[in-house]
Amino acid sequence: MQALRYFFRHPTISILETCKTLKQINQFHSQLLVNGFLNHPDLLSKFAASIALKHPTNIEYAVQLLDPSHNPTVFALNSLIRVYSKTSTPEYTFRFHHSILLSNQKPDNYTFTFLIKSCAQFKDLSLGLAVHATVLKYGFHQDPHIQSGLINMYAEMELLGHLKDLFLDINQPDLVTQTAMLVACARLGDIAFARQLFDKMPDRDVVAWNAMIAGYVQCGEPLKGLELFYVMETNGLKVNEGSMVSVLSACTRLGALDTGRWAHEYIGRKKLKIDVTLGSALVDMYAKCGDINMAMEVFWGMKEKNVYTWSCAMGGLAMNGYGEKCVELYRRMRHEDVMPNEVTFTSVLKGCSVAGFVEEGCKLFESMKNEFGMVPQLEHYGCMVDLYGLSGRLDEALNFIYSMPIRPHAGAWGALLKACKLYNNVEIAELASRKMVELEGTNKDGAYVQLSNIYADFNKWDSVRCVRHKMKSKRVAKVPGVSVIPWP
Fold first, then answer.
1. Please, what is the Cα angle at 343 between 342 and 347, to 5 degrees?
2. What is the mean pLDDT of residues 222-247?
3. 3-state SS assignment for residue 4
4. CA dist 126 to 123, 138, 167, Å?
5. Interhelix angle for 74-84 vs 59-66, to 10°?
6. Which among 264, 257, 258, 206 is positioned nearest to 235, based on CA atoms?
7. 0.85 surpassed by pTM
8. Which contiguous run of DSSP H or E holds residue 259?
9. Residue 31 has what pLDDT?
10. Long-range own/partner contacts, residues 198-202 (CB < 8 A, 24 or more apart)
């Protein structure tokens, strides 16, 4: 009974503190029924809302509690909408929105915040526009949470024009809304507009700075990201772990190992916590910049690792020529009951290619489908072609390409071409090169150059001249290389 009295004073906290399992929820529910406490609609709604919010895995229990109720509160229904908006079945949120309307109550700003989140998952424009129109109808369009939610929704749908129209209609957007717009524009590739927003923001906190730096890195301008970080640091803003993840990502893209080492030292000097995200970024940076020993030192020193950390380490080992160690690390990951994902299989299949473990790679590819229920993507098929090709099994590689359930991409033919050059097979090399020319559309310079080089390797000079003449007639120009000066 003490728990029941506590329930009346702090109903939500009570459920959280006293109920940890479904069995305990059942027992608590029984006590409330026996004592008649759930005859009051408001208490019933609070009880259901508490289960939904504090025990989202038992959301169906909360739904069953409210279904018989003729007048559930908006708070309870909003709780269900909130939980379902974060699940793989966000369409259920609209069922409870309908329940609010049927009970002659009005949805509030919290209702629409999570309905918009559901629309972002759906990526259904007509549904998103309908919710946006309803927001305007009820007058919630100036709510900052709804504004940032709508920005995220249109960003998920990749509708940059809608985003800009929405933002221009917002009177005096707050810092959260401005930052959300900055992130969205950078994500959709309009980094110039994102920078305009950033420069006009009267108050810029570390979140805004981090968003702009990350935007530059994601849009392929890592050097500008590093330059902006330097401005941020010299302005005295407090750098956090998120700032350094972007810095390390910039170093990775630039191949700037010295700058990456400086960033690692900076993290130590500022006593920033190397959590899973930051640790994974360090592993990735060192591995891709060629210092695999330091990458593995950071990896083994991490107290907590997730599947991305393991995958980064495996990919780094494969990239640096340690295929056997890559496969061994995969086995250790499975021994520790870490579930692999698509990136994991890309990494370990590359490791098998480097080590020449053809049979092992085939088993892993099959386990990806049969054991873990994943659908192989183009990159995985490219890895398998590489696996066969680097082992000299060119006919099997070609047969694998022809047996793919999806249209073979340039990456698969490119992997076959690389193997043909290694094993001097001009016939299959010519086929692979021609397929790449067909597939690469307007970006044909690389495919034509490779085809020309193949002919040159086998002293087929008439064919070289023919390819170069074709490049000239089609106005295909060879793209020059670039170099990067490390910073700082």
1. 120
2. 95
3. helix
4. 9, 19, 19
5. 150
6. 206
7. no
8. helix 257-269
9. 63
10. 201/175
The residue among 488, 109, 108 whose CA lies nearest residue 265 is 488
- Residue 71 makes CB contacts below 8 A (sequence gap 6+) with 41, 103
Cβ atoms of 350 and 383 closer than 8 Å: yes
Please choose, from the candidates 391, 454, 452, 396, the residue with its C-alpha nearest in 3D space to the C-alpha of residue 421.
454
Q: Give the confidence band of 364 by pLDDT, cuts at 50, 70, 90.
A: very high
Amino acid at 461: W
pLDDT at 136 over 90: yes
Q: Supply the pLDDT for residue 1.
A: 40
| Rounded CA separation 266/259 (Å) | 10
Confidence of residue 4 (pLDDT cuts 50, 70, 90): very low
pLDDT for 479 beyond 60: no
Average predicted confidence (pLDDT) for the chain: 86
**Torsion sign over Cα 337, 53, 49, 29:** positive
Q: In terms of C-beta density within 10 A (0-12 exposed, 13-18 middle, 19 or more buried), how is residue 212 classed? A: buried
- The counts of H helices and E strands in the chain are 29, 0
- 62 burial (CB, 10 Å; 0-12 / 13-18 / 19+) is buried
Please give the C-alpha separations between residue 36 and each of 1, 9, 455, in angstroms, as whole numbers: 13, 17, 87
Q: Which residue has the tokens 């910073």?
A: 487
Q: What are phi and psi of 221, to 5 degrees?
A: -125, 60
What is the per-residue pLDDT for 271? 95
Mapped onto helix, strand or coil, the DSSP state of residue 372 is coil
% residues pLDDT > 70 (the chain): 83
Q: Are 391 and 356 in contact (CB under 8 A)?
A: yes
Residue written as tokens 């069953």? Answer: 64
Please check the confidence at residue 10 and state whether its pLDDT lies above 50.
no
Buried b / exposed e across 81-115, counting CB within 10 Å, b at 16+?
A: bbbbbeeeebebbbebbebbeeeeeebebbbbbbb
| Number of residues in the chain | 488
474-477-482 Cα angle (round to 5): 165
Identity of the residue numbered 323: G
Please report, rounded to a whole number, the percentage of residues in the chain having pLDDT higher than 90. Answer: 57
Rounded average pLDDT over 349-376: 96
Residue 438: count of CB within 10 angstroms of its CB: 12
- pLDDT for position 20: 59
Q: Is 52 exposed, middle or buried (0-12, 13-18, 19+ CB in 10 A)?
A: buried
Residue type, 467: V
> First-to-last CA distance in the chain?
66
